What does this fold into?
Amino acid sequence: MEEEFFDSVIIGRGLAGLSTAIETTKEKNTAVFFSEEKKSFESSSFNAQGGISAAIAKNDLVKEHFNDTVRAGAGLCEEKIVKILVEKGKEKVLELIEQGFEFDENEKGISLGLEAGHSKNRVLHADGDNIGREITKFYFKLAKEKNIHFFPEQTLKEVIIENNSGKAAVFEDFTAKFNSLVFASGGYSSLYGKSTNPKGNLGEANSIALKAGVHLMDLEFEQFHPTTIKGNNFLLSETLRGEGAFLVNDLNEKFMRKFEGKDLATRDIVSQEIFLQINSGRKVFLDCTKIENLKQRFPSIYKKTRELGLKIEEKAIEIEPAAHYSIGGIKIDENARTNIRNIFAAGECSCSGLHGANRLASNSLLEAMVFGSIAGRNSLKEKNEKSKTKIELKTKESNSDFNLNNLKELMRNFVGIQRNENGLKKALQEIRKMQENNSTFLAEKIIESALNREESRGCHFRTDFPETKKNAVHSVLSE
Ligand SMILES: Cc1cc2nc3c(=O)[nH]c(=O)nc-3n(C[C@H](O)[C@H](O)[C@H](O)COP(=O)(O)OP(=O)(O)OC[C@H]3O[C@@H](n4cnc5c(N)ncnc54)[C@H](O)[C@@H]3O)c2cc1C
It folds into this structure.
């Protein structure tokens, strides 16, 4: 097996990976490994539609962004992490503007959208609903100006840790030894039957990390996006509701009007209510017909709905929720450090307690930028002894008898928006009969975490434990 040594190894080329990579310096030898093809940019980052939140408006304060994030997080946010996000996030956004990134503007300056759970208009967007594409391309350009090696179609298979120190990242035919390793490998929402994520987002790197000795946290908190097109995984961004769209059922009831925040209540509340509506036999629709300039403001959504034969500007579209964002992940502190000396994590694969039990909309691109750059800076300080030990891939997975769709359906049916002990145990029992691999391993850990949390909080709703406990605690997993 071919072997090479790098100062910094980064797993993932989404916004968190790129943000980590651009912190590198000329003297350092940085490598970015990622599963997708060189030209594909298949990542959640690339697909992001809505925007990036930052308190840059004259009538806004970082303190208010902080308060909104903590309120959405249902008692489980780590406040010092939230403070870093809102303060450094605002600086990052201003720096981006300085570097020449073009956010959309209106006659008053940068145009700021409103999203669920935000008390102020603070969501910056680019080329309408194409923030993900635009910002990923911009960061990639910055990264290409540095001396970074990109390795496409390299899926991480194993991480070697000895004496609390990471030594090597092992791929199918290649071993990368390192001074430091940063996981920036995205979330695991595609473990669910209906998901907005790219199909590769199965959290395999999280499984690999846990098996190697890295701690994970809060896996039971999977955020469901309330509005995806029924029968299709395409997301209808929350910004549509920020611009005047509303939810309505087939009895013409605007059922969100009875909740605080109405159609812009936090995601957990909106998804729960849609779930109840659908379960009681109703059909649910997103009515976007009142939005002005819909074609210009949301070009991708307009184009996609047209391709599906839907006239979004004329007729309400039937929707259903889908698994969208993995709040849980690799446990990190405010320095993006894991429990292993020279291993870091950033972005959606990580869990710092930032989002608590429910992520505030448009905080995750910001998280990828802020914590990617913290991870990048800190990882450059690490030093490893160059080891001469030959490394072989220990775990060769054979997936010949494994049916991913069966796993996804179990996760969707029993570990979804509402869970209970019977369903969780049934899913666990069925998954344990399947051939073990990184996906089933992580799914089991998610279910065990959901079983252990005997309360309802944020996006974890247990029908058998509907109350929220007084004390909010994280669930930490170690192998
Ligand atoms: C449709 C959609 C719309 C969204 N809209 C918004 C929005 O408007 N605002 C917002 O803030 N957030 C939004 N989000 C969430 C946000 O996009 C993500 O949380 C964020 O982009 C995650 O970035 P990341 O770099 O951590 O991971 P990703 O962008 O998912 O990148 C993960 C990278 O890791 C690589 N990888 C994974 N596993 C391995 C492995 N085993 N080996 C090697 N490489 C691996 C992948 O190939 C990929 O390159 C949206 C998400 C989706 C899906």
In short: Residues 2-222+325-379 form a domain with the FAD/NAD(P)-binding domain fold (CATH 3.50.50.60). The longest helix spans residues 79-98. The longest strand covers residues 2-11.
